[in-house]
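Budget justification, computational time. The allocation requested in the original proposal was used primarily to generate structure tokens for proteins on the priority list. As evidence of use, we reproduce two of the resulting records. The first is shown immediately below.
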Amino acid sequence: MPSQPPAPPTAAPENTPDADWAEFEEALTAWDELGIPVPASEVRAALAADVTVLNQQPKPPAPPEPEPVPGAPGALVPTPRPASEPAPVAAPPTASAAASAVHTATAEADAHADRLKDHPEWQRIQTLRGALGNVWNVLKEKAGPHWDALRADVRFQGFWKTASIRACQAISNSAASLANRLSRGGDLPAADALLKLSDSTITYSTAAADPTSAPVPPSAQKAPADKTPAVEEPAMQRLVERSTPPPYATREDALRAGQEVTARFHAWIGSPMGQELAESSHRRVADFREAWQKLPAHAAGPALAVGPYTDVAERAKALVTAAVGAARFEPGDLQTLQALAQAADNHAARLSVTLPPGVAAKAPTAAAPPPRAATPTLPAAPAPRASA
């Protein structure tokens, strides 16, 4: 939603994005020049792990096995295309159309998630999706009323274009690799969905990298002095920004969803990963612990619960991002933590649209408070006031 990380029980140096990603630093320069109150250094620290995941150059997928030639059992040589059947030539899609295809293919692949969740390639895909989405959401949240001006800046557009291309290239490689293995194992529906995901993401990368899709230079972004320039949303926003979720129909529905988040916490804290990290003082673990301790009782109203549940989701996602590529924790444990993050995120999203008219939710703080030492214990009651 991506090197062995620092051992969680001990303090570790902060992650910093690779120095060769100039577009990220240029976007932060734009951030400072726009006078956004949140300092760029805070943004850099908040996105370090996600940018590192996105900055890893993808490896090409393993080539598919050659097809047997009819009449020659066991002979593995490529089947040539007859000269009379030239490859069809189609006009390349626009980046916007390609992004729509990515959105559709992603939804189709997600339908097979239960069978894919234990495969490292699928976990890698989820890590990349999570990192790309978190970069967008953190920048949007911290920019606040300056968000439209930031998106209109050519330096932000260049960074986002590069980030989405790299993410889609890596997703394409992982999807193709897993599809090849699943097809050999006989799971053709999942393999077909992954091949569509691989094709759509590499198509987007090609379309977005076309020079004709370059960001509009600032000189071309004319607008009245009293009006913010109209900004066309970057194509990959369709992948990272979800549609508005339905509100809870009853108080009992919201209560059950909060209880589900707590149940997922129980499942994770009881896992080997959860037990190992329970008393860790590592920054990401401490951030998650503190966010969990701030959750209100399940019966609390939406206005009090939206911010805390959003914070729990963000801290859990950050913990997953930091650990998923380490080959140190069991895939099932990582999946359990990811499910907790998703449940908290979905609950917060539905609570946010369940608020009575005119009532604003208490937003999470822009930066987490300093970590504090705590001895975690399992929750003894349904109310999620236990620490991790």
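The second record produced under the same allocation is shown here.
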Amino acid sequence: MKKIVIYISLLISAQTFGQELSLSKALELANNREYKQAELDVLKQEINLKIQKNKRLPLLYGEANIQRNLIVPVTPVPAIAFDPNAQPGEITPLKFATDWSAKAGLQLSLDLFNSQNQLKIKQAENLTKKSELSRKESVETFKNLIIDLYAQTYLAQQQFELSIQNENNYKETLAVLIKRNEAGRASDLEKNTALQKAYELTLTADEAEMVLKNKWLQLANYLDISAFDLISTSIEEIIYVNYETSDFEIEQLQLDLDAKQIEIRNNKLSSIPKLTFNAFYGGQFYDNQLKINQSENWFGNSYVNLTLRIPLTENFETSLKNKQFEYEKEITQNKIEILTQEKQTSELQKQNEILLLTQKINTFKQIVALAETNVSIIKSQVDAGTVLITEYTKEIENLFSQNQKLWQLNYDLLKKQLE
């Protein structure tokens, strides 16, 4: 692991001792940037829900205005109302306003009956559930990403360690071969062939080290790796963690279906009359001069009223919208049924593939164990001079190849479990 330690030390800004990085520690330290966005969306929807609930409270606000009548309106009235001596039918023009007028007071409005208010709350609750589902999905997706990267780094570490082991073992055997060549018991051709293989093994180790470095850098995008120099949780331990995966796609569609049902009910209730209570308490100002501070020009004003709004022409559009929403609801329902069936089939296929991968892994573990035994046997024979070093080369290559197949099977099994 000397090469790994040298590499990791370049990333350490202060003098620290390297530690092993477990999967649980990696998940604990990982920084999920997208989670913050999902969390903000949840908070936004929660505020929207509070706003909708607060709309059930009376609406109270202050109101004030000032008006300049450029032309004072005149209303004709019977003259006899002001002059008993006026002729029958005589009309007198009378001004019913002043040059300036103003109004100030408190206005209150309260929906006594509005069937759509409760549905708006349900719509806000539905949006809140969607945002919470997105947050949950963000957490699970990020967790799977870290597990995936961690497993890749572990397998790269295993590949690097085996490359170094093969390189060192081969160099030991090469040293024996060189001594035999110097003593005239091995040919120059055999020695040169062995030297070529030693260079190739060195290049293989260098390539494996580069892959490992890059995997560490990928992990560094999500957590601080400066204090760690070794992946400690094995691929077997990672695989047999009890992963819980949620079906966010179906849950999202179910929330869409609920939202569509709310829209249908909301559209139907839009044709029901709405009753609103209104009240005003304040004063009005009248004068030909703008002297608002003079109390004698202000007159008290207060009233209450009920407003009834009865939809008429909207009912034609409501009927068409109902059909549109019903069709959309049916489309969403069909999507859920189709997806549910596909998920059930996919889950059965997944279990079959996991079973097959598990069987393959168990088989390849035995193959790797046999390959390791063969390498030891051939190495002893080569050192003893009874077998050519080319046979040792073949066994080393075979061991590396079988390990790569085993690593790939382990990774495929992990990916399948994370689906």
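A brief technical remark on that second record: The beta strands are 19-21, 59-68, 74-78, 91-95, 100-113, 228-231, 274-287, 298-309.
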